[in-house]
Design brief:
With 242 residues, the protein is of the alpha+beta class. The protein is built from four helices and 13 strands. It binds zinc ion.
Length: 242
């Protein structure tokens, strides 16, 4: 699915009145997963409309929980994604992958966890030590890679190929169940490759910039970096070493 698709035509496939949710014959709403929250938005149809409050997977289907009326099965629908929220999530998600790429390039340590909301997120690393100084250094490195405008590609890789790709092994793609074949891979060209189901911007420049909000130790070999996306990389203040 094209991550830049904001609006799509669809049809109501199954309507679950008890739970106030519907499944569509196709959808561009992201159902959540891999640390990226679900989309929100709206459905409109001839004579009706509803807000999409939540989207998620259940029993092999993607369900849309609606506020407002439910359309009848078979109704032709127009889906509209809340683009401000989604694009901010794309920038945030990509920023976190850039951070993973930088930490791997500079320290050769893997990720142990992560999460995000629109505009901010955190990643945990197998680092021995963390400090405010390291946080500032990582912020500078991530912003450098943003400015380099690395292209970002979505690839589908045969499992046999993915399982022998060193970049994917270090991001623990081998922990994904073997029946998932091919694997969807997000390639920040020249910086980071990982198996991922989320939505990302087309180049690192589109992230804008980042600010490290907080660094924390969550235990031995588990160090947390929390960052926010900004419109531009920070301008170095006078007196700061360049
Ligand atoms: Zn990801």
């Amino acid at each position: 699915m094209d991550a830049y698709l904001r609006q799509f035509d669809s049809q109501a496939l199954e309507v679950d009145r008890d739970q106030g949710r519907i499944a569509l014959d196709r959808t561009a709403f992201y159902p959540g997963g891999g640390g990226q929250p679900h989309d929100t938005g709206a459905l409109t149809w001839d004579g009706g409309q509803a807000t999409v409050r939540r989207v998620g997977r259940d029993a092999g289907r993607i369900w849309h929980w609606l506020d407002g009326e439910l359309p009848a099965p078979g109704t032709e629908l127009l889906g509209t994604i809340d683009w401000d929220r989604r694009h901010l999530l794309m920038r945030t998600h990509t920023a976190l992958h850039i951070l993973c790429g930088v930490v791997w390039a500079d320290y050769r340590v893997a990720v142990t966890g992560g999460n995000m909301e629109p505009g901010a997120g955190r990643i945990d690393f197998e680092l021995d030590a963390m400090s405010a100084e390291l946080g500032r250094l990582l912020e500078k490195r991530v912003n450098e890679e943003i400015v380099r405008a690395h292209e970002i590609l979505v690839e589908f890789l045969a499992r046999v190929e993915a399982d022998s790709d060193p970049a994917l092994i270090r991001t623990k793609a081998n922990l994904i169940p073997a029946h998932v074949d091919p694997l969807r891979v997000i390639d920040i060209v020249g910086l980071d490759r990982q198996a991922d189901g989320g939505t990302h911007v087309a180049t690192t420049a589109e992230v804008g910039g980042v600010r490290v909000l907080k660094t924390e130790s969550k235990g031995r070999a588990n160090k947390r970096v929390r960052l926010a996306v900004t419109d531009h990389p920070p301008v170095p203040s006078s007196g700061e070493a360049v």
